[in-house]
Amino acid sequence: MMQESSDGIRIRDASIGDASDVAPLLEALGYPCDRDGAADRIAAVLSDPRQRLLLAEIAGHVCGMVGMELRYSLARGAEQARITALVVAPACERQGVGRRLLREVEGIARQAGAARIEVTAAGSRGNAHTFYRSCGYDDASLHFAKLLGD
């Protein structure tokens, strides 16, 4: 369990019981999710030792989350960390929550021996791009995706 810092933000690992707090955060990020779906997603993360899901709290209320995974990069020949989700509740933006979540996952990645951490943000998320750049993240390669449906 992580300690609360002087800014009043407490960062901790998520548990299944946090599903009702995680679901609206996923919704705010643009990924529709109900409590049961959030519980399933949290369970998947908890069952994988190379993933983490951290929650930020202010005054005991969940106000943000970050998911990360560690993986070996064949191209780089080293461990790499990837932020899989980062969101701050709209009412808690501009209070340092996002920066604290980034610092936590960066620390976890360093401890795990990762040489690099990456994050993607949709082209339409200009505020996210500005945020990541202000936190020391550089523009990198383009990200391509293809849905594999029926």
TrEMBL record:
Matching entries from Pfam families are given as: Acetyltransf_1 (PF00583)
Q: Does the keyword field hold Transferase?
A: yes
The protein here is known as GNAT family N-acetyltransferase
Gene3D superfamilies xref list: 3.40.630.30
Q: What's one GO MF term for it?
A: acyltransferase activity, transferring groups other than amino-acyl groups
In terms of CDD domains, this protein maps to: NAT_SF
- Which keywords does the record carry? Acyltransferase, Transferase
Asked if the record carries the keyword Cell division, the reply is no
Origin superkingdom: Bacteria
**Residue ranges of the N-acetyltransferase domain?**
9-150
